Amino acid sequence: MGCAGSTQSQAEGPVKKIRKPKPWKHTQPISKGELVKMREEFWDTAPHYGGTKEIWDALRAAAEADISLAQTIVDSAGVIVQNNDLTTCYDERGAKYDLPKYVLSEPTNLVEES
């Protein structure tokens, strides 16, 4: 895929269209502030799990964007989407990127802060 006119070959398989994760529930009710803190901690430590910082940055941008923009981001970064909800992805070198659902969507048991 070197030039602007090239297309994905059949050997590479179909491009997976990303979607929002299915509804999920945290182990206990969690506030928006706690969720934001968990997300920040994950993104701060994510590059230490392997892979490249550039791909982690692209995955963060995709996780925080709406679906159509997220699709453009992962396609542009060369991210290979294993699970349509972005929980498992690979880069072009084969490094695996696992994203927890809490960085991709909000839980069903999100509570108001008091």
Automatic annotation (TrEMBL):
Regions of compositional bias (Basic residues) in chain numbering: 16-25
Start-end of Polar residues biased regions: 1-11
Pfam families linked to this entry: UBD
Region (Disordered): 1-31
Domain DC-UbP/UBTD2 N-terminal: 16-113
Source domain of life: Eukaryota
InterPro entries: DC-UbP/UBTD2_N, DC-UbP/UBTD2_N_sf, UBTD1/2
UniProt-recorded name of the protein: DC-UbP/UBTD2 N-terminal domain-containing protein
Lineage of the species this protein comes from: Eukaryota, Viridiplantae, Streptophyta, Embryophyta, Tracheophyta
